[in-house]
Amino acid sequence: MHLTVTPSDMSCGAMVRGADLSQPLTSAQAAEIRDIWLKHQVVCFPDQALSDDDLERFTLAFGPFGDDPFIAPIPGRKHIIAVKRAAGETSPIFAESWHSDWSFQATPPAGTCLYGITIPPEGGDTLFVNQIKALEQMPDDLRRRIEGRKAIHSAKNAYSPKGMYGAGDTGRSMDIRASDEAEASHAHPFIRVHPETGKESLFGCAGYIVGVEGMAQQEAWDLVTEVYRWQTRPEFQYRHTWQKGMLLMWDNRSTLHMATGGYAGHDRLLHRTTIGSA
Ligand SMILES: [Fe+2]
Fold it and tell me: Which residue of 36, 109, 133, 198 has the fewest CB atoms within a 10 Å radius of its CB?
């Protein structure tokens, strides 16, 4: 396996050719891919032909499976969810807001793998923002306001029965199971040191962040909003355009991402796993 890495011309992201991920990776190959992933944060492997077994095996080469709440796995699998949308669906696009996957958990997943099975001819790009760069370039006065502070993360605005994907969310083909468990919260520092690279990064954003420890709600929201405006700026973004057979893996510890629409009238299906923190 000789890998060719082509970095994007945006703030992060790289295309990797030369891998056949339908075959098991040796530990040396997995280590090489891990290094590429940590360096580029979002890595795309085009032209793959992967079964669900292959997707699971690839995921496990990089850590244990993550714990995926609120979305039922596909039949016969415990750790794969279907990110899907039917051609005629009119509900809001799933995950069309910036987030780091499951950042409300005590130990959020290190990474996510997403494999394109049915890809519309247009639209459906996934956007990422590089949170290492966003922090590096953050104005000092804003950085000072979050330094040493912890943000309170919760899934309640999305997955509680009153949330975006709760009882009022109908006509969606994804199998989302809203629950009162979404009311739980966990605090994480705004600025974290990446456990593998040692680089500082912003972690998470408004959406799953619902408050700031030790700060009154209005003041907290003003701060979280100001950080959000900075950390999602266009110069920190990478826009990923999908093709069928692409496997994407990203680092949730150093990026945010969001889905986009623009493919009304077309089916879309991707299979997703999360890589837990080792
Ligand atoms: Fe996501």
Answer: 198
- Model pLDDT, residue 35: 98
**97 closest CA partner among 164, 42, 8, 151:** 164
| Class of 4-275 in CATH | alpha beta
pLDDT at 262: 97
Say how far apart CA 126 and CA 202 lie, in whole Å.
20
Residues of the chain with pLDDT under 70: none
Count how many Cα atoms sit within 13 Å of the Cα of residue 262 in the half-sphere of its side chain.
Answer: 11
Calculate how far, in angstroms, residue 247's C-alpha sits from the geometric centre of ligand 1.
15
pLDDT at 103: 98
CA of 185 to the centre of ligand 1 (A): 18
Q: Classify burial at 229, counting beta carbons within 10 Å of its beta carbon; exposed 0-12, middle 13-18, buried 19 or more.
A: exposed
- What span, in angstroms and rounded, lies between the C-alpha atoms of 213 and 241? 37
Q: How far is the CA of 2 from the centre of ligand 1 (A)?
A: 30
pLDDT at site 278: 74
